[in-house]
């Protein structure tokens, strides 16, 4: 096998596929593209010992060039050997879907830990090995980073590995070589169409988790209240469990009662426990997440006591997070940045508020434009007043993004303030007794991307400053 020959014949200190991050002694993988040779030259100048490429080597680089049929396939094979096949020593579990991945992953990690298993977590908010927390840049990291992290998890004594699997990572093969013991599907709503182009492509990318990466004896847990979830359940041939908060006929696990309040949820689910189960997580969308993960926990043998303990103690930063509450006015920070997520958050906030409901939100730049006017309409219909502002404008003009948003709004119940800080300040100062304010879009993020630069920006900090 070529991978074994490469590793046997070269003294390799590390693996890299980004020429900007090459260290002396690295083996560099030149991904196919117009600039692959330029990147290869740069990598070698930084001290790479050799280049793995799938195009013919330029004459001056021939002695350092390893020609392979597929760089992507070779990269996965080399990573598996170099890092001593870490995923064979871990029980890997993944959750995918448009909304709910982060909360579900936190719940999964908490239930496994409560059950006495040392667990590693990879997700949007952070990476964790046991109690050690590491900042995270991508929902699902690149394959080399993923394998290196898994090797660290094995070295630290982890038995289980939980991760959010994004549609990009599944489509790009960033989880290649992993065989998951379990896979969860939360829902599929409009997002990332700048990348996938159509909802069908988006669905097919998500489906790969269950058809390509799930182990033959693995289990799939699927929310069939979602139309794509229902379709996925019908189309896959593996051990599978259907979950329905709405009690769809034929669903294997469904609640007989759900009580919801500002203090959390109480779910009665006879298939999981004889007595009701409580959680501090709030809202119907969290009922979906809780039901999905409880069903998964039951399927993989986590004890009822561990399920209950995790649900009482888990906290998820930036997911319907009560940032300010003086008993009269309440301000929620939430990561909602898709039409479905914004609609769900506003619906729950509406059910809890005694006064007016307001929202501060924007849309990210260089991303799916089609959802902007939809989110404008949802904010207008779901709240009494909306402040339309900037999110992460990236390389787009904030005013152009806002123009797209307000094209879906037809009342005078909104105000445009381009500065996110100013919009939050004004929204906070406008609150009266009994009012609820939702600040949506950024959640746990403590930065704002303007152009290609990250600037420190934290919704929570501004809210706490303005409300005191």
Automatic annotation (TrEMBL):
Residues where N6-carboxylysine is found: 206
Any GO MF annotation of the entry: ligase activity
NCBIfam families: murE (TIGR01085), PRK00139.1-2 (NF001124), PRK00139.1-4 (NF001126)
Cofactor(s) required for function per UniProt: Mg(2+)
Name the UniProt record assigns to this protein: UDP-N-acetylmuramoyl-L-alanyl-D-glutamate--2,6-diaminopimelate ligase
Record motif Meso-diaminopimelate recognition motif, residues: 391-394
UniProt KW Cytoplasm keyword: yes
Domain of life from the UniProt record: Bacteria
Family label: Belongs to the MurCDEF family. MurE subfamily.
Domain Mur ligase N-terminal catalytic: 12-60
The protein's annotated pathway: Cell wall biogenesis; peptidoglycan biosynthesis
Post-translational modification: Carboxylation is probably crucial for Mg(2+) binding and, consequently, for the gamma-phosphate positioning of ATP.
Binding site for meso-2,6-diaminopimelate: 367, 391-394, 441, 445
Pfam families per the UniProt record, alphabetical: Mur_ligase (PF01225), Mur_ligase_C (PF02875), Mur_ligase_M (PF08245)
